[in-house]
Amino acid sequence: MIRRIICISFALLLLLGSVSCSPSGTGGAAGLPTPAPTPIPIPERHNDRIDAVLKHIRQRDLLTDHGFWTIFHGILGMGPDDAILLDTTTNKRVKAIDYLASGARVRGLEFVPMADGLEVTTMPMSVIGQGHQDQFVAEMAEWDLRRDKKFVVNGKDYTFDHFIRQAKAHASLSANQAEGNPLELTWTIVIVSNYYGTDHHWTNNRGEKLSVEDMARYELGQPISGAACGGTHRLFGLTWAYHLHRKAGGKKEGVWKEIADQIKEYEGRAREFQNPDGTFSTGYLEGPGNESDSTLRIATTGHILEWLALAMTDTELRQQWVEKAADALTLMILENSFQSLDGGSLYHAAHGLELYRARLWGNSGSHKLTIPLPPTD
Q1: Domain presence at residue 138
Q2: Do 67 and 30 touch, CB atoms closer than 8 A?
Q3: How many CA atoms lie within 13 A of 358 on its CB side?
Q4: Beta strand pairing status for 111-113 and 62-63?
Q5: C-alpha to C-alpha distance for 217 and 187, rounded to whole angstroms
Q6: Is residue 366 part of a domain?
Q7: In CATH, what number is assigned to the domain containing residue 261?
Q8: How many domains does the chain fold into?
Q9: What is the pLDDT of residue 21?
Q10: Chain-centre distance of CA 47, in angstroms?
Q11: How many CB atoms lie within 10 A of CB 352?
């Protein structure tokens, strides 16, 4: 009985607490994209199911009434070209990224001009705002958003590059330590490594000398357990930087070898704790977990698959246990297609399925695969 209570409490923490990257208390316009009006037929073939899920997710309305957090997660899940907002005032549709860049008012969106660029205000557990430092910019970087993409802030023209420069400027290995607040470079490392390369060195706005390798070493030293969404985002950032390092001719040595070893360790954990139906553990990568809550199951399986679709080689992604996980994820989403689903769970799952599909069969629609591929050795 006590064990059951502990498991239920842990599941609630995953949904609502600090280990989650979903805003707490989402509901209505805050974070739940509209469902399909009726259940969707489930195709027989594995790849057809994935295409059906991706089509379904694109057909769920993202609204201008939704919070910033939900809208930019929609862009992550569907891509800047396919994430479309329905303007509830004009009943017209517009690309979500263009709406955010237009200077329109969005609940939870605060772009603040700074000396080095544009800051995105972080609002932890706010329901509607960015939950983690550099989260919005990193998720756009994962689709390789152009540096010259225009953004209007307070009536003045800027570009996406202003966000990139600010992320690099405020990155720090010491900020907030005196107050006991943990640093969060999980998303920053994606931005800087993507747009500047993994051998980049700079001086931040505090006068600290930094490098991508410094950030990698810091992130490697932080725990996976207890980090946002079971540590899958921390693993994603480290894996992203490692792949770019190797792509640029970097060697598998020092901190980079430690990262490679950690990737393999947690790939093994994903498989070890996988449930019999193919879903990944509702305890993420910490241990076994098979809670029945569909939102939690979509969140955990979706986040882990998203990371594996970045981390693994094509051959590894074709393993039966990975295919079984992707199939289980598609089934859960299709079986709940007539339900309102948490935006974070849904769109990270969509991003994972987009990457998985692109790696094995090519891109869906007009999408390009914008992730750094793993080394083959």
Answers
A1: yes
A2: yes
A3: 23
A4: unpaired
A5: 14
A6: no
A7: 1.50.10
A8: 1
A9: 59
A10: 22
A11: 25
